Amino acid sequence: MKSYRKELTLQVPARRAYVNITEQVRACLAESGIREGLALVNAMHITASVFINDDEGGLHRDFETWLETLAPEKPHSRYHHNGFEDNADAHLKRQLMGREVVVAITDGRLDFGPWEQIFYGEYDGKRPKRILIKLIGE
To answer: What is the pTM of this model?
Structure first.
């Protein structure tokens, strides 16, 4: 059994953004030589997420509207967490969108359903954040 590990670092220029990282994960898979196994991709920061969905701009705007309805950024005073920082909403948004994904690797490819892509969700950006890619298999 082989194991492969790589960290990506992203810095988005906005407080919130969605970044398609599918090609970076595919590049890691090609580099690893793993043909059958599992890919774990996770955000290594508590105010970011990794999830699978469609790469469609309207849907991404819907995510933003939905998350902002459930956990609005402002007023900052509504959250007990906010004091030194003003990112309580980002912690809640991450909780809703999830920390990681696991994707099967079959015949050297990510085994996706139609339209599935891997996304990094940023909810408190403007600084470098890490994403872990861990591949295990043969």
So the answer is: 0.95
* DSSP per-residue letters across 50-114: EEEE---HHHHHHHHHHHHHHS-S--GGG-SS-SS---HHHHHHHHHH-SEEEEEEETTEE---T
CA 51 to chain centre: 5
Residue 55: give its domain's CATH number. 2.60.120.460
The DSSP letter of residue 38 is E
Cis status, amide bond into 128, omega within 30 of 0: no
State which residues form the domain around 58.
2-137
Structure confidence by residue, pLDDT tens digits, 80-90 = 999 888 999 99
